[in-house]
Amino acid sequence: MNRGGIVWKILVPVVIGLGVVLWLFHREFNPSVWDSIHFDGRVLWCIALAWLFMIGRELGLSWRFRCITDRELSWWQSVKVTMLCEFTSCITPTSAGGSALSMVFMNREGIELGRATSLMMTTLFLDELFFVISLPLVMSVVPYRQLFGFDNTFTLGLETAFWIVYVGICLWTLLLFLGIIVRPRAIHSGLNRLFRLKWLRRWASKADELGHNMEITGDELRRRSTRWWTETFGATVLSWTSRFLVVNALFLGFVPMADQLVVLARQFVVWVVLTVSPTPGGAGISEWLFTTYYGDLIGSAGMALVIALFWRIISYYVYLAIGACIVPGWVMKLKK
Questions:
Q1: Which of 43, 92, 123, 169 can bridge 253 by disulfide, Cβ–Cβ 3.0-4.6 Å?
Q2: How far apart are the first and last CA of the chain?
């Protein structure tokens, strides 16, 4: 990837995201909304809190990279790998994400490629496991009608998409669990037999590679202690929860009367749906989904747009800027 290619990949999501924001502002925004916003000490403190939660997200991911590599990566190396993963997530469809390329970034920092591949599989499994476990807990404490109890086409479509994607996450997590922890060789063999079918044969090599990686990962993970699993999963919980709490901090500043538990629960729904976003980093879709889904808690489409813009700046656009600074130098060193 040359410098021009990097610039192009950065510009595409920026244009998509800002284009949708401008369209929403043109359609929904009322200039009087600015009159109702007072950037007093409380609002500024809550914006700063949102930034702190995003730092907590990076701390959790860096801590996890440190843990899964048995401290072979320094804190600085772990931070670099984390930032490169975040940048990759911003310029690729969310379904791909940056985690899938973490093996390349870890290898660049000195981790042998085969082991880095198994560690990448581990991070994928931990992320999916977090959603599989946390969503039933969230729905047990937040009334279902607060998530999908609106009689309109948007909510019906969102609810359908959510459950389809969540079932897919559960099945993928089950496959990873069986293929990594329980019966890696049997799952590998089963995948090879399945992908010998005529209409699946084109993906046979990728399925074989997946099964092989599962076996390697399983050999490593089955030797891990309870303490190791507790630490790595704890870091995963810290990273995802911190990302969700960014929105809570913004609501605390701009819409303090909103139910914070409902705000948090809806973040789970948003991120599950965004895992299948076709645009780079969910650009455009994220802004539209946020303003529409949270609109009833805010009461003003204009205010929803303001909060959505702060949310995307903190959790998305800042990583494009950081990546634009880090990636060119990283690529040049890789070529050398």
A1: 43
A2: 13
For residue 329, what is the enclosing H or E element?
helix 318-335
Q: Residue 255: exposed, middle, or buried by beta-carbon count in 10 A (0-12, 13-18, 19+)?
A: middle
Six-digit token string for 315: 């959790």
Query: Residue 210: which residues within 8 A CB-CB, separation 6 or more?
Result: 179, 191
Determine contact, residues 282/321, Cβ cutoff 8 Å. no
Query: Confidence class of residue 242 from pLDDT cuts 50, 70 and 90?
Result: very high
Rounded CA gap, 279 and 123, in Å? 23
Vertex 314, ends 309 and 317: CA angle to 5°? 80
* pLDDT tens digits for range 84-108: 888 888 777 765 556 677 888 888 8
Q: Which residue is it, tokens 């991070």?
A: 123
Place of tokens 């109890």: 149
**Most confident by average pLDDT, 24-33, 74-83, 111-120, 294-303:** 74-83
The two structure tokens encoding residue 134:
């946390």
